[in-house]
């Protein structure tokens, strides 16, 4: 009789473990999807910001270029054209960031770094572990209780 109950309990335990594994897998998949959606939204906001900044900077660049050109012609000082050069580099970068292929080049470079220079990505003292986090938490909580006294 005890053998049958033990066998039944083992089967129930195995089913429960499989259920817990399935649930944890589902939870992890949902968390990964949520984090990816948040990343996509943040990137979309960055691109939108870059496009909005380009509108303002483009207007500034146009006004500055016209003003500097008129000033250079009226005063016969070609030196007034000099600020147009660095401003044009900034405009080109913003255009590339907002509508160009900058994001694809950055992604390619990041993938290259991850594959060929992975050692540059290591964190100081390595990846945090449960033990290191728990040790820091205990130290902080004992420090907080010590300060309260």
UniProtKB/TrEMBL annotation:
Residues passing through the membrane, by range: 53-73, 79-104
Pfam families in the cross-refs: DUF2368
Entry GO terms, CC: plasma membrane
Origin: domain of life: Eukaryota
Alphabetical keyword list: Membrane, Receptor, Transmembrane, Transmembrane helix
Plastid is among the record's keywords: no
InterPro entries reported in the protein's UniProt record: Plg-R(KT)
A Gene Ontology BP annotation from the UniProt entry: positive regulation of plasminogen activation
Protein name per its UniProtKB record: Plasminogen receptor (KT)
Organism listed in the record: Xyrichtys novacula (Pearly razorfish)
């Amino acid at each position: 009789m005890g053998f049958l109950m033990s066998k039944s309990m083992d089967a129930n335990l195995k089913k429960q473990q499989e259920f817990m594994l399935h649930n944890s897998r589902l939870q992890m998949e949902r968390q990964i999807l949520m984090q990816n959606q948040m990343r996509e939204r943040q990137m979309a906001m960055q691109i939108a910001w870059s496009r909005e900044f380009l509108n303002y900077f483009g207007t500034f660049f146009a006004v500055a270029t016209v003003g500097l050109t008129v000033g250079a012609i009226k005063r016969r000082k070609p030196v007034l054209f000099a600020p147009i050069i660095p401003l044009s580099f900034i405009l080109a970068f913003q255009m590339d960031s907002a509508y160009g292929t900058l994001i694809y080049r950055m992604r390619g470079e990041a993938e290259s770094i991850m594959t060929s220079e992975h050692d540059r990505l290591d964190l100081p003292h390595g990846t945090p572990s449960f033990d290191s986090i728990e040790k820091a938490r205990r130290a902080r909580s004992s420090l907080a209780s010590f300060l309260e006294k």
